[in-house]
């Protein structure tokens, strides 16, 4: 039986060859354990059993190490992107001081969806045709058996999630399960994210819904509407209080692009905020203007504004 990269095996010390290290054997095959790959202060003796991990050095020669990798052959895990090569792909940290290649063909074709240094990509350790170790991106089929069904208590909770499949229509993620392991599978629809998300990107998400049928979750990167509406309403009030007469040339009829430019929110969010303020008796509208309501001495001392405008002021 030959020694294969990516496996942890127990070998015997065959002999020491200075200044290189120890040759280890399974009784048939031999592999070098360099001095730099030995851990601990244990003295080696011939015939001693030692557990090692088999991989390739920079010259594609099989070597052994006593260091423990984050993954072994066939295992799946999230590895951090340590370096990026524009032609080869991403190099992932695997705990040995030597990286594991995630080939470019395993990455999304769209550049903005490709990982950046520091991202965490779910991969499976595999071998190429020459037996050298490499990584392959993990998809739903591989991740699903390792994930669990999310509990209903997750609803409206903010969680960490890692992107495993980035698409324009939506982003598929693994929601962090903490000590429970891989976590739960989830989807962020394109309308619930501020931008397309990268493979391996770690983000904050809010659990909008836990699906009863399979325990997967629908996610959002936006705050709940009620909370968001309060913040939007406060922003609008602050803007109006800073204007002469407490009036602004924006209303339900204002174009969406103007609302986005002025307040940084959508037309629907703007209308919800105005509705909240009108319900609370804080504002009123006439024509295309919105004004702060005035009562008592404020109404007496404040000269009424008959200002009109054919368009919004900047």
Feature tags:
alpha+beta; OB fold (Dihydrolipoamide Acetyltransferase, E2P); five-stranded antiparallel beta sheet; disordered C terminus; nucleic acid binding; CvfB_S1_st; CvfB_S1_2nd
**How many alpha or pi helices?**
5
* Poorly predicted runs of 5 or more residues: 296-314
Mean pLDDT: 88
Shape category:
elongated
| Overall tally of domains | 4
Radius of gyration: 30 Å
Beta percentage is: 25-35%
Instruction: Give me the count of strands.
Output: 18
Going by helix content, strand content and strand pairing, the class is alpha+beta
CATH class of the largest domain: Mainly Alpha
Strands across the major sheet, in which order? Answer: 3-2-1-4-5
Describe the 3D structure.
With 314 residues, the chain is an alpha+beta fold. It folds into 4 domains: 8-65, Nucleic acid-binding proteins (OB fold (Dihydrolipoamide Acetyltransferase, E2P), Beta Barrel), CATH 2.40.50.140; 76-141, Nucleic acid-binding proteins (OB fold (Dihydrolipoamide Acetyltransferase, E2P)); 152-220, Nucleic acid-binding proteins (OB fold (Dihydrolipoamide Acetyltransferase, E2P), Beta Barrel); 225-301, Arc Repressor Mutant, subunit A, CATH 1.10.10. It is 15% helix and 35% strand. The chain contains 5 helices and 18 strands. The chain has helices spanning 140-143, 225-241, 256-263, 267-279, 297-301; strands at residues 8-17, 21-25, 30-34, 49-56, 62-65, 76-85, 89-93, 99-103, 120-127, 133-137, 158-166, 170-175, 184-189, 202-210, 217-220, 247-248, 283-286, 289-292. The strands form 4 sheets. It has a 5-stranded antiparallel sheet with strand order 3-2-1-4-5, with no helix packed on it. Strands 8-7-6-9-10 form a 5-stranded antiparallel sheet, with no helix packed on it. Strands 11-12-13-15-14 form a 5-stranded mixed β-barrel. A hairpin with a 5-residue loop joins strand 7 and strand 8. The longest helix is centred in the last third of the chain and has 17 residues, at 225-241. The protein is elongated. The model is unreliable at 296-314 (pLDDT under 50). InterPro entries: CvfB_fam (IPR014464), CvfB_S1_2nd (IPR048588), CvfB_S1_3rd (IPR048587), CvfB_S1_st (IPR039566), CvfB_WH (IPR040764), NA-bd_OB-fold (IPR012340), S1_domain (IPR003029), WH-like_DNA-bd_sf (IPR036388). Residues 293-314 are annotated as: Disordered. It comes from Saccharibacillus brassicae. This is RNA-binding protein. Pfam families: CvfB_1st, CvfB_2nd, S1_2, WHD_CvfB.
